[in-house]
């Protein structure tokens, strides 16, 4: 999963930012920054996101 496509995957799974935050344990604010390319997640964080988004 390319992180710059994270929003597309999230929408495809019909998940809100709040849902993704709850499922991953990552704050909505940080997910927003990742989704918009303002932050680069660690490997562990990227893995949490990718596991939820398949």
How is this structure best described in words?
The mean pLDDT is 92. The protein has helices at residues 6-12, 17-24, 28-35, 43-53. With 54 residues, the protein is mainly alpha-helical. It starts with 5 loop residues before the first helix and ends with a helix.
Please render the helix and strand layout as text.
Layout: H1 6-12, H2 17-24, H3 28-35, H4 43-53
Which features would summarize this protein structure in a list?
globular, 54 residues, 0% strand, mainly alpha, 4 helices
β content, as a range? under 5%
Ends apart, CA distance between termini? 8 Å
- Helix count from the secondary structure assignment: 4
Structural class given helices, strands, pairing? mainly alpha
Roughly what is the average pLDDT, rounded to an integer? 92
Q: Uncertain regions: pLDDT < 50 for 5+ in a row?
A: none
Number of strands: 0
Give helix % range: 55-70%
Please describe the biggest sheet, giving its number of strands, its sense, and whether it closes into a barrel: none
Radius of gyration: 10 Å
Q: Output the helix-strand order.
A: HHHH
Shape: globular
